Amino acid sequence: MTATTTTPAAPKKRHRNLAQGVVESIGASIREGVLKPGEKLPTESVIMELHGVSRTVVREAISHLQAAGLVETRHGIGTFVLEPPAPALLISPDTIRTIEDVLAILELRISLETESAWLAAARRTDQQVQDMGEALQRILQGGSIEADMQFHMLIAQATGNRYFVDILTHLGTTIIPRARLNSAQLSHDEPSAYLQRVNREHEDIFHAIERRDPEGARAAMRTHLSNSRERLRKAQEESAGS
């Protein structure tokens, strides 16, 4: 007499693995923009057919997606893709007070705004160039901090990438060293001589963007921000020495 064997029930882990597969597939579609914010997910039946899984697995996957903040289910209507949460910026403008703080921000801006200038030169519209030119004229006429900030913001806008704009907006006037510190005094320059150099640097950036020269714009922006950094670094060293 041979003993009969029974097939063991599939372990629960298999359900979790199947559900995770569905989560990863739908999550990838959301991250890659195939499924956009506000769009409705396919019905449970369609997802079951696409992935070859049961309704229980689909519902478990939807639950995981909800917990991750990727989708929300509206009863009687369906499940919809949510807007991705805005990333939290860890830089607080209120903490930028010293020369060391401004130097650190300048290092960040060198990496950020050199690429911003490159993209702006490649993508700018005629209207954006006109707006930059008007901001530049205000800088040349009075050297106002507001015009300086607007000039850099217009370059960010000309990239067509809203994240450049978001970061500069968050930083506010901290992107302009002389908004926080007397840069001319720190570098032992006459204010007029200091402004003339800064104005020439802005002009070089503008003209490169105007003639659609991405490499020239990148180099001009790097020169401008690097000069600002070196002026402040020299002032910091002299202050420490004294």
UniProtKB/TrEMBL annotation:
One of its GO terms (molecular function) is DNA-binding transcription factor activity. The keyword Transcription applies. PROSITE patterns: HTH_GNTR. Pfam families: FCD, GntR. CDD domains: WHTH_GntR. Coiled coil: none annotated. Keywords: DNA-binding, Transcription, Transcription regulation. Gene3D superfamilies: GntR ligand-binding domain-like, Winged helix-like DNA-binding domain superfamily/Winged helix DNA-binding domain. SUPFAM superfamilies: GntR ligand-binding domain-like (SSF48008), Winged helix' DNA-binding domain (SSF46785). Residues 16-84 form the HTH gntR-type domain. The keyword Zinc does not apply. InterPro entries: GntR_C (IPR011711), TF_FadR/GntR_C (IPR008920), Tscrpt_reg_HTH_GntR (IPR000524), WH-like_DNA-bd_sf (IPR036388), WH_DNA-bd_sf (IPR036390). This is FadR family transcriptional regulator.
